Amino acid sequence: MWKWFHQLASPPYFYRIVPAFSAWLMVPGLALIAYGTYAGLFLAPVDYQQGDAFRIIYVHVPSAYLSMLSYMILAVAGGIGLIWRIKLAHAVAASAAPLGASFTFLALVTGSIWGRPMWGTWWEWADPRMMSELILLFFYFGYMALRSAIDDTAKADKASAVLALVGVINVIIVHYSVTWWSSLHQGQTIMAKGGPAMDPGMLYPLLAMIFGFNLLFGSLLLRRTRTEVLFRERRTRWVREMILSPEGQS
Amino acid sequence: MLFRGDRCLFRNVSFAVESGELLILEGANGSGKTSLMKAIVGMLELESGVLEWNGTPVGDQRQEFHGSLVWLAHRVGLKADLTLVENLNFEAALRPQAGDDMEVVLERLGISRLKPLPLRSLSAGQQRRVALARILMSDVSLWLMDEPFTNLDREGRALVLRLVKEHLGTGGMCVMAAHQDIEIDAPTKRVVLQ
Amino acid sequence: MSGQEHNMPGMLAGLVAVARRDLLLAWKRPGDVVNPLFFFAMVCTLFPLAVGPSAEQLTFSGPGVLWVAALLSVLISLHSLFLSDYDDGSLEQFLVSPQPLPLLGLGKTIAHWLTSGLPLVLVSPIVAITYRMPGSVVLVLMLTLTLGTISLSLLGAIGAALTVGLHRGTALLSLLILPLSMPVLIIGANTVSLAAGNETYSAGVWALAAYAVGALSLAPYATAAALRISNE
Predict the structure, then answer these.
(1) Is the pLDDT score of B64 beyond 90?
(2) Do the domain assignments include residue C2?
(3) In this structure, is the dihedral angle defined by the CA atoms of residues B84, B86, B91 and B92, taken in order, positive or negative?
(4) Contacts of C228 in chain B (CB under 8 A)
(5) Would you call C31 an interface residue with chain B, using a CB distance cutoff of 8 Å?
(6) Considering only CA atoms, which of B35, A148, A146, B120 is closest in space to residue C84?
(7) Average pLDDT score over residue span A115-122
(8) Mean of the pLDDT values across residues C210-231?
(9) Domain segments of chain B: what residues?
(10) Which of C4, C84, C93 sits opposite B139 (nearest CB)?
(11) Backbone φ, ψ for residue A193 (5° rounding)
(12) CATH superfamily membership of B1-68+141-194
């Protein structure tokens, strides 16, 4: 088992196994998303409180969940790269950032669309989850800005890993402080995720979407990291040999 | 082996410095002399290779190692707003001091009369002499000097060589990066970087 | 070489020496201390000008405005925390000193707070009074600002260390520090608001204190790591 991990950290090995591995993730992922979308849009019963508007949670909830998972992955990968000096870990962190930021943005947009009918406005400051998402987006921006400001890749890796580790602790604290803050300033309705116990007809598509999104995210992250690895290792021998050899042309 | 960005600066460099010896790192500008010195003091990480102090890897004894060396870098590392005395007093807290009288040291370096002035009023050569004062007042065995002759006139250069020779004579060591020819009357090793 | 063990300065000697040196430097350049205070006062005047000086508006927005102004004021003083040391080579000397780097960084942070956060706390009552803040609330403001600016100095040092060598580091620094400082801002400002509304506010004070203690124990290590990385 450990031997496999060790092997995994080697860039050429990683590069080779990702296409197959990510296909194993992407196909079921897309299938689940397809089912979830169809079921969510057409099969799930209409919500007694929100009508058809609630259906956007099928995109909003997975996105929000992934935006946070992505940041955790980014921070953990950065930490692994920093402490154990594994270059692949840094490549994973670099690849996770834009993915996570996109999901955060998606969560914010879908959340806003969801909130509009209930809030009467496109943005409700008092909603703690939306505020946490927004601040998370700022964390992502800071991370990516720091990375792009440092030219030396190794240095950028380490600096952004430190930032991410500091950020991870703060993200959790931000969540709690924003929740406290919004409880002080109540007066607007706060979004509840589906109200009392969710109807199974609503729940299953949601679970499908969550799993599907996760698998999709995993495969996207792997593919992105693969490209990142190729770029970082562009001057090494194994890359040159691979490009020149016949099967490397694919 | 040391990388800088994506460039490998050097590989297969080995050397050993004994008590009383001077090691000179030679090479053209950009050959990696400063980077090698920074790797020695621990500011840069080596991709591969081991650095040992008294037989033990440096990583295991960082505090002792740093407590036994003084580093004269290209930028002198003194505050321009403070006076000479204020700067040297601060330095005393950072590493072991030999307890030499500051007056005597300043006299030797020819900068006594500059005491009340803020460092920014001094010329580059005079500031470098203040940095040398810092070295003289510390009680360490290893002197690491990166291009110590910068901004010094001929008298200053001779002074540096005299100080190094004295230090070696008491059993100290010195690693110096220079791109000029240096002649000194003491055991010397050279490492040339391409 | 012989007297090395005897002459090695104690662990805290570096911290104290760095803090004293930085205070001495600030003494020689009082503008560095006074300018952020003027900035603080000016930002506080912007709000009534922009939004209207009615009494209810002032009392209502007072805690928030003062807190935001304090945050911004600390932010502008942070970018130069390590800058001059980086430029003149002093930072390199810290890296090769036997003194523990986290403590040296902490020494600088302490000096920074004494020359930015503390003056702010002392000046804040003057501005708070113009916002018609009652005396008891002003005390809460000063308490939260003290705890909050300590945390801000500690966290800000991390950001300053990460961006010290960078081109256009100042804008990037703000981008990094603002998200990190949001919990402090939220808790601090709202605690003062609660006090203004005669409600219990102790929870926020404890939270700020806990945050400051946490920052004090963890931030110096992050700052030291960031300093090493920036100096490669």
Answers:
(1) no
(2) no
(3) positive
(4) 43
(5) no
(6) B120
(7) 83
(8) 95
(9) 1-68+141-194, 80-139
(10) C4
(11) -80, 85
(12) P-loop containing nucleotide triphosphate hydrolases (3.40.50.300)
Name the residue facing A150 among C166, C176, C193 (closest C-beta): C166
- Inside any domain, residue C1: no
The domain in which residue C150 lies consists of 10-230
Please compute, for residue A234, the number of CA atoms within 13 A of its CA located in the half-sphere on the CB side: 6
Q: What is the pLDDT of residues B103-158, one digit of tens each?
A: 888 888 888 888 888 888 888 888 899 999 988 888 888 999 998 888 888 888 88
User: Is the residue at C27 inside a domain?
Assistant: yes
DSSP calls for B7-25: EEEE-S------TT-EEEE
At residue C129, what are phi and psi to the nearest 5 degrees? -65, -35
Chain B contacts to C (CB-CB under 8 A): 41-45, 62-64, 66-69, 71, 73-82, 86, 90-99, 118, 139-141, 170-172
Per-residue pLDDT reduced to its tens digit, A128-181 = 889 999 999 999 999 999 999 998 899 999 999 999 999 999 999 998 889 888
For residue A178, the chain C residues in CB contact (below 8 A) are 182, 186
Task: Note whether C10 contacts B: Cβ–Cβ < 8 A.
Answer: no
C4 lies in some domain: no
Contact between A144 and A86 (Cβ < 8 Å): no
ipTM of the complex: 0.89
Q: Mean pLDDT throughout C27-39?
A: 93
Closest Cα in chain C, distance from residue B158 (Å): 24
Neighbours of A182 (CB within 10 A): 21
**pTM (2 d.p.):** 0.89
Q: Is-contact A62 A47, C-beta < 8 A? A: no
Averaged over B54-82, what is the pLDDT?
87
Nearest to A80 by CA among A189, A10, A157, A169: A157
- For residue A152, the distance in angstroms to the closest alpha carbon of chain B comes to 5
Inter-residue contact A1 to A174 (CB < 8 Å) = no
Q: How many CB contacts within 8 angstroms connect chain A with chain B?
A: 6
- Amino acid symbol at C210: A
CB-based contact A151 B5, cutoff 8 Å = yes
- Ranking C6-15, C19-28, C125-134 by mean pLDDT, the lowest is C6-15
Contact flag A153-B6 (C-beta cutoff 8 Å): yes
Do residues C88 and B79 lie in contact, with contact meaning Cβ atoms separated by under 8 Å? yes
| Structural domains of chain C, count | 1
Chain A contacts of C168, Cβ < 8 Å?
Answer: 149
Residue C190 Cα, gap to closest chain A Cα (Å): 7
Q: Summarize pLDDT for B8-49 with one digit per residue, the tens.
A: 676 677 788 888 888 888 887 777 888 888 888 888 887 778
Contact C149, C121 (CB under 8 A): yes
Question: Is B7 within 8 Å of chain A by CB?
Answer: no
C-alpha distance from C217 to closest chain A C-alpha (Å) = 13
Select from C175, C222, C225 the Cβ nearest to the Cβ of A141: C175
Q: Do A138 and C178 touch (CB under 8 A)?
A: yes
